[in-house]
């Protein structure tokens, strides 16, 4: 054994993923998901400016 054998071993490199062919339905689904994500982000930004929806706090009954 030499001094170079000790220590953490490097992990094996994972094989590169093959680029798969995307047909029209895959492209349409991908574009729809991207548009939905964009719309959701816009709605979140729009709702962020407003205050809380239920601004009554804890409701108390009339009994004492």
Spell out the blueprint of helices and strands.
Blueprint: H1 24-48
How do the SSEs run, as a string of H and E?
Answer: H
The tally of helices reads 1
What class would the helix/strand composition place it in? mainly alpha
The best one-word shape is: flat
Runs in which pLDDT lies below 50 for 5 or more consecutive residues are none
How big a fraction of the residues is strand? under 5%
What is the residue-mean pLDDT, rounded to a whole number?
79
Intertermini distance: 84 Å
Backbone CA Rg: 28 Å
Largest sheet, strands/sense/barrel: none
Helix content: 25-40%
Q: How many β-strands, per DSSP?
A: 0
Structure characterization notes:
The chain is mainly α and 64 residues long. Helices cover 39% and strands 0% of the residues. It is flat. The model has no long low-confidence stretch (mean pLDDT 79).
Please name the defining characteristics of this protein:
single chain; 64 residues; mainly alpha; flat
Structure summarized in a few sentences:
With 64 residues, the chain is an all-alpha fold. It is 39% helix and 0% strand.
């Amino acid at each position: 054994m030499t001094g170079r054998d000790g220590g953490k071993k490097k992990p094996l490199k994972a094989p590169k993923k093959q680029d798969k062919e995307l047909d029209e339905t895959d492209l349409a689904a991908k574009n729809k998901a991207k548009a939905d994500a964009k719309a959701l982000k816009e709605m979140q930004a729009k709702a962020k400016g407003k205050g809380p929806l239920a601004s009554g706090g804890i409701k108390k009954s009339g009994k004492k």
